[in-house]
């Protein structure tokens, strides 16, 4: 919901470190893969109840997610980079609830399952819209530099990061927070379905 507003600030903050990495020959895909590897470590930390460590690893993953795009804008974006970025992002989002389910299956597993299903809804509606938008040559005005059509909603990247931070700081509240965020993701999914229905309903 607030990603477009935060985007100029994010780019300003990451411009210098991205330029320094690019000057040393670091490629965007390398940062993407490194960030995903760090994110996977967060799952293990969650399973071991090391919630503060998990939070640090999650934030490092999200930092890498911003840096790879900044480096790509310096070196030139690629379709492979855009594909890799979004594919690993969606998998990472779904794995965080798995970490909480592993930490306390009896308490967290059902809520984690509902949350993963909600993430499937937001992710699938996002990608379905993007695929048809690409077919029609559409682009998102709020995110002109994104590799694919970036469809907004109530729960975008910033809201998801805040949610992940909240469940790491308050792990005992995971079931309640997960159900609440899943409901918000449901609203996002429904609004994206409606946007797709309206955008693609005209006669071919």
From TrEMBL:
GO terms for molecular function: transferase activity. Keywords: Membrane, Transferase, Transmembrane, Transmembrane helix. The chain crosses the membrane at residues 38-60, 81-103, 109-135, 147-170, 176-195. The keyword Transmembrane helix applies. The keyword Nucleotide-binding does not apply. It comes from the Bacteria. Its EC number is 2.7.8.-. Belongs to the CDP-alcohol phosphatidyltransferase class-I family. This is CDP-alcohol phosphatidyltransferase family protein. It comes from Thioclava arctica. The lineage of its organism: Bacteria, Pseudomonadati, Pseudomonadota, Alphaproteobacteria, Rhodobacterales.
């Amino acid at each position: 919901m607030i990603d477009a507003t935060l985007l100029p600030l994010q780019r300003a903050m990451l411009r210098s470190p991205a330029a320094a990495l690019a000057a040393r020959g670091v490629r965007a895909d390398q940062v993407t893969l490194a960030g995903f590897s760090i994110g996977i470590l967060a799952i293990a930390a969650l399973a071991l109840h090391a919630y503060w460590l998990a939070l640090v690893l999650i934030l490092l993953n999200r930092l890498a997610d911003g840096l790879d795009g900044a480096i790509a804008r310096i070196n030139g974006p690629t379709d492979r980079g855009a594909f890799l970025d979004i594919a690993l992002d969606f998998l990472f989002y779904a794995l965080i609830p798995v970490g909480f389910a592993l930490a306390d299956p009896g308490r967290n597993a059902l809520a984690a399952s509902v949350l993963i299903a909600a993430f499937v809804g937001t992710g699938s509606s996002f990608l379905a819209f993007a695929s048809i938008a690409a077919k029609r040559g559409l682009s998102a005005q709020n995110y002109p530099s994104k590799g694919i059509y970036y469809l907004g909603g109530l729960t975008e990247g910033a809201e998801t990061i805040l949610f992940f931070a909240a469940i790491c700081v308050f792990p005992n509240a995971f079931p309640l927070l997960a159900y609440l965020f899943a409901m918000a993701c449901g609203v996002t999914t429904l609004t994206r379905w409606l946007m797709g229905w309206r955008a693609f309903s005209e006669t071919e």
